[in-house]
Amino acid sequence: MTVVMAVVALLLALSRRKQTRRNREMDAALKSAESRTREAESRTRFADSRTREAEAREERLRAEVTHLVSARLPAVPLHLISSHHPIPGLLNKGQAGPEDAELLDSVLTRVSEMVLKERRRVDAAARAALRGASQDSQALSYRLQSELDALQREFTGSRHLTHRMLAADHLNEQNLRLIQRTAIVCGAWPGHVRKDTYVAELVTGASSRLRGFDRIKINSRIASNVGIVGRAAEPIAVACAELMANALEHSRDDLAVDVGLIQSGNGNVCITVDDAGKGMTAEAATRGARLVSADTHDIMLTELGDPPSQGFAAIGRLVADYGFHVSIDHSSPYGGVRAVVTIPPNLLASIDEEAEPPSAMAPQAAVAPKAERRPSSVPETPVDDDEKSRTPVPDSADGLPQRRRRGPAGPAGGLAAPTYRAPDPERSLKAWSEFQDGLESGRTGTDLEETQ
């Protein structure tokens, strides 16, 4: 009995031990399951947060793309025309990531390059078409000019009809200037070859191409034989005509435009055009200075306005091709604009006035005032050259040689020095009256012969 009880007790102890071990294993498994559950829940929460972040980023990117398409890309063509039309930035610059911002900016850069390339292609095609049409019209205008000139020389009709022919010739000159300007802006050459031309004659001829040329007052202070080489004569005439036209247009009809011709000490000839208009704003002056500089080859027709202002652009092309200089960023003495055309010595020439006399319509050069000599208070006796060379030069108190005062030298050979004689208005009037009477008598005689 005792043995049985001992066996039963042993079995019970073993069973309890197994149950305890099993409970421990179940507790460990339960704790492990709970830990895995917590990890899974943490991963789920992390995945949810990443999903929400991705959705938010996608929403922001969608909003930026919408802003790019609706606002930023349409501003690119306007910004390429003028910097006054800025391109809007990112919609949410602080929230956009650097990769997204770089991607969107690269789209803008690529679109700008494509738009600019296409605009240049279209502009080149438009320039070619305008250049061809302008050159054809320019050639016809030159032919019409030749016909009108021949008709004026051959025809001896009434004064009224002659006046009408001269008016038609002047209208053709104005039309020719506009056509020539368009052709130059489109890349053509001026279309007219000149020989070496006097500066005063060239400026006078340039003013005759304009409506209101009688308001232009030309004052020359250069030598009468100074001219411009043939290859640069017509380009400089075009530039002067455009500057004078701009001065006439921006000043009242009762105000004169002063044009001055002067030669500087370094050999340059400067042509100044002063108007009494309202002047230019700082923005307009900056833009004009950029147009008349030699860096205007990238200017497109669409950047010249509507209708296009071609004068400064034409001057810029001529400056780049022929090497003279134009500035318009100064104020005139009358509060308007002063434009200066600077012609370097390599574009100047000396013309023989006897072989090719200047035009009677060209302004005469003004004579510089003579400096008055101060009379010497101490009379001086004439001294021979040999005696002058032997006479020692007195020194000053500090040992430096002093310059000896010399009297004015008389003219060699006893001949008086040539003096300038001012033109006599009455004599000039008499000469022109005799010329007009002779012209009228010649016309009358020709008309009588034709009548008989």
UniProtKB/TrEMBL annotation:
Residues 21-57, 355-452 are annotated as: Disordered. Its EC number is 2.7.13.3. Residues 22-57 have a biased composition (Basic and acidic residues). One of its GO terms (molecular function) is protein histidine kinase activity. Keywords: Kinase, Phosphoprotein, Transferase. Residues 357-369 have a biased composition (Low complexity). It catalyses: ATP + protein L-histidine = ADP + protein N-phospho-L-histidine. GO terms for biological process: phosphorelay signal transduction system. It comes from the Bacteria. GO terms for cellular component: plasma membrane. SUPFAM superfamilies: ATPase domain of HSP90 chaperone/DNA topoisomerase II/histidine kinase (SSF55874). This is histidine kinase.
